[in-house]
């Protein structure tokens, strides 16, 4: 093992979307930037998350739409095939899981890009271990940005370890489909994957430990999606305990509340673990066993001068758009520029099932927990939902602070719910007065016109 000493202005650990954007921006601004990732430059999103999974969702949605032709537009015969999906993911989305394009993009911006494991080694110092075992020590003059991301959680279920179960990383790489699949976890990833595989003819069972799928969201949204999944043939089991997992003769067997649930494949999509345990946090006085890193409104790490943190590990929302939002704020701070501080009161999120489930801000339960005087209004998708026909069911739910007369949260379920949410995200973010929202003209017949009816129901 050889060790050399180098100097740089800024060292970025973890090159998911936010880290990559920050490293590129800092390098273009003239800083000497070293950017390090132990896996693929670009992170989870383009290779295993948002991008390939939404290609899967799009394909499954097309199959569902074809099945809705009868009674609306005639008849159609469809023969599902996974081959185009796998090809599109490998060739168009991930370049066969090769990050050369992303690396070149960063280097062209002026950054030094390294594959390896980077660890803090005290204030202003970082050790980078290359894949061949060699090590380089960096003296960092401006600071360090932490963007290590998360990995699939390892569940302490007896018998699970050692079996060939899938995580999201395996699910997006499959080239042929199993006959049956058990999905552990009824969160966004689990629900999206369950619906995708079911629509391609896989027998799917979802196991959720909580009382409902999409547990943190509005109960009405969870119930609406659960009804659709069941209607499409997915078995949804909630409030369950998995006592054990076994794998033999090409089949998984799970003991679930006294029942044996079997399937050819098992997808574990129940939570993520922050990559904080091998960062050297203890060398700057922080806890390596922490679940998240405490940051201020400029993304400066509390208790460690000259260190910023962005992305999933800040605990502000495990979404690509949060990481990108934070990266812009942290970059301004690194460069000594002023600008708006971070604010998360209007954080939007979308689960890309069919119907889509989208939300922003607080749920009704969260608003009441905060002691607000809450008003709630809701309604269906109105005339556009009826005109849409099959697949056009959904809802809009609004949560208002009666004392300030503004929306503090909203949920939309239905076709293009994520797009309808844009109107409501702006209203929550800008604290648009309710009378102003009520005085608007809502185009007919649109899905977003359902907002007007929900506003009328606020009470």
From TrEMBL:
Gene3D superfamilies: 3.30.390.30, FAD/NAD(P)-binding domain (3.50.50.60). Residues 348-453 form the Pyridine nucleotide-disulphide oxidoreductase dimerisation domain. InterPro entries: FAD/NAD-bd_sf, FAD/NAD-binding_dom, FAD/NAD-linked_Rdtase_dimer_sf, Pyr_nuc-diS_OxRdtase, Pyr_nucl-diS_OxRdtase_dimer. Residues 9-326 form the FAD/NAD(P)-binding domain. The keyword Flavoprotein applies. GO terms for molecular function: oxidoreductase activity. Keywords: FAD, Flavoprotein. Belongs to the class-I pyridine nucleotide-disulfide oxidoreductase family. This is Unannotated protein. It comes from freshwater metagenome.
């Amino acid at each position: 093992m050889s060790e050399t000493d180098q100097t740089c202005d800024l060292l970025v650990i973890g090159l998911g979307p936010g880290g990559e954007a920050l490293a590129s921006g800092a390098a273009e601004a003239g800083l000497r930037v070293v950017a390090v990732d132990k896996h693929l430059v670009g992170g989870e999103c383009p290779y295993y998350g948002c991008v390939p999974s939404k290609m899967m969702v799009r394909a499954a949605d097309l199959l569902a739409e074809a099945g809705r032709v009868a009674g609306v537009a005639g008849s159609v015969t469809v023969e599902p095939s996974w081959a185009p999906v796998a090809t599109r993911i490998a060739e168009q989305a991930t370049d066969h899981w090769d990050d050369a394009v992303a690396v070149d993009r960063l280097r062209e911006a002026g950054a030094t890009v390294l594959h390896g494991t980077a660890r803090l080694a005290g204030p202003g110092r970082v050790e980078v271990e290359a894949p061949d075992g060699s090590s380089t020590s960096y003296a960092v003059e401006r600071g360090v940005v932490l963007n290590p991301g998360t990995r699939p959680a390892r569940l302490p279920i007896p018998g699970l370890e050692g079996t060939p179960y899938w995580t999201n990383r395996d699910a997006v790489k499959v080239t042929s489909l199993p006959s049956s699949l058990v999905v552990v976890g009824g969160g966004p990833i689990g629900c999206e994957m369950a619906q995708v595989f079911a629509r391609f003819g896989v027998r799917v069972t979802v196991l959720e430990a909580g009382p409902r799928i999409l547990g943190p969201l509005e109960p009405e949204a969870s119930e609406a999606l659960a009804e659709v999944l069941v209607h499409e043939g997915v078995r949804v089991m909630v409030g369950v305990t998995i006592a054990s997992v076994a794998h033999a003769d090409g089949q998984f067997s799970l003991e679930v509340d006294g029942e044996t649930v079997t399937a050819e494949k098992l997808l574990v999509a129940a939570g993520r673990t922050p990559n904080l345990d091998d960062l050297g946090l203890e060398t700057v006085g922080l806890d390596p066993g922490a679940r998240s890193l405490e940051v201020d409104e400029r993304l400066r790490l509390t208790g460690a001068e000259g260190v910023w943190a962005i992305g999933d590990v800040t605990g502000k929302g495990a979404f690509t758009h949060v990481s990108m939002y934070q990266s812009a704020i942290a970059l301004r701070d690194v460069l000594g520029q002023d600008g708006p501080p971070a604010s998360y009161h209007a954080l939007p999120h979308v689960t890309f099932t069919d119907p889509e489930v989208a939300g922003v801000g607080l749920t009704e339960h969260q608003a009441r927990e905060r002691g607000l005087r809450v008003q709630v209004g809701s309604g269906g998708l109105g005339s556009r939902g009826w005109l849409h026909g099959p697949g056009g069911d959904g809802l809009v739910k609004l949560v208002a602070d009666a004392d300030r007369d503004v929306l503090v949260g909203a949920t939309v379920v239905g076709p293009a719910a994520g797009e309808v949410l844009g109107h409501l995200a702006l209203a929550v973010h800008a604290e648009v007065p309710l009378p102003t929202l009520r005085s608007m003209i809502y185009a007919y017949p649109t899905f977003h016109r359902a907002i007007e009816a929900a506003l009328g129901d606020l009470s």
